[in-house]
Amino acid sequence: MGDCILVTGGAGFVGSHSCVALAEAGYTPLILDNLGNSDVRVVERLGRITGTVPTFIEGDVRDRALLDRVFAMHDVAGVMHFAGLKAVGDSVRDPIGYYDNNVNGSLVLAAAMQQAGVKTLIFSSSATVYGEPERSPIPEDAPRRPANPYGHSKRMVEQALADLQHAQPEWRIALLRYFNPVGAHESGLIGEHPQGKPNNLMPFVCQVAVGQRAELAVHGGDYPTHDGTGVRDYVHVMDLAEGHVAALRHVAKAPGLLTLNLGSGRGASVLDVVKAFERASGRPVAHTIGPRRPGDVSAYWGDASLAEATMGWRARRDLDQMCADSWRWQQGNPRGYE
Ligand code: WQD
């Protein structure tokens, strides 16, 4: 049984896929999740994928007493911190809830880690810390000008962790900025299952293809892009998960602070995604071009070269595989984890 890694939010979309990558790399994931936006049945699915059902603790990272008990009861070698809220629109409506979950939660976790002497932390950050980019591809040293409370919350945690590592140089910290995570594990046993009407593109496209929703509203057809629709950097969730393991291995070599984009380095438009999904599923995805969504930028994608230069990681799965894997998950689980 390899090193125990505490995975906060480990029943969630990126967290659960990272548990697979951890197990495949010989680590022992230990899941802490408050099930606020995830389903406990993921844990059994992880057992079917990896051969071992991970230990699951239901709880919230803001519960300091619980964290102290977790560190007392388990020999935790490091932490991957996914627990948090991640919907931009919701963050505008509920900024305090976002700062409490994302900032306060991360600070309580870091304090508990410090007390327990656990000083290896992989933090789930986001490309939304960049806000409206001056240009794409976006390098890690681009200005951070978040445009919403969600992005600000991630930026604040990045700052707090950078200050911590500066004050205590023995810390080993990676700040991983995701672009748009999509797809699902190839088994089709775990995947993205948003509660209610999906905000994000890929789950919405999946639900149209499987017949749960009538059609996709394309948010804007008049952007200055190759086909007028919004362009983003989609990255397969398993590539992202493997990127977390690569970062864990990298920081294990030496203390320090690592800040990396995890993206494909390529832009794809909404219509590119629709066409790729139709190829992958063999199903039409009915769609209409509607008005732009407030807050959207026209195009952004990441410069992923630093992750490759630093730790030899790059996204290997292309848009067609992202769509094929999403479709397999959606077909097998039309109503999520039942
Ligand atoms: C992608 C593209 C939309 C839905 C968000 C968060 C970001 C990150 C990833 C956490 C855009 C278009 C979408 C629809 C559409 N999450 N679209 N119709 O906004 O790039 O990023 O998710 O870190 O923080 O901001 O992702 O999937 O919502 O949109 O046309 O029904 O699809 O306009 O061009 P986004 P998205």
TrEMBL record:
Keyword rRNA-binding: no
EC id: 5.1.3.2
Origin: domain of life: Bacteria
The protein's required cofactors: NAD(+)
GO molecular function: UDP-glucose 4-epimerase activity
Enzyme class: isomerase
Pathway: Carbohydrate metabolism; galactose metabolism
One GO BP: galactose metabolic process
SUPFAM superfamilies: NAD(P)-binding Rossmann-fold domains
InterPro entries: Epimerase_deHydtase, NAD(P)-bd_dom_sf, UDP_G4E
Gene Ontology CC terms: cytosol
Subunit and partners: Homodimer.
Family in the record: Belongs to the NAD(P)-dependent epimerase/dehydratase family.
PANTHER family on file: UDP-GLUCOSE 4-EPIMERASE
Protein name: UDP-glucose 4-epimerase
Source taxonomy: Bacteria, Pseudomonadati, Pseudomonadota, Betaproteobacteria, Burkholderiales
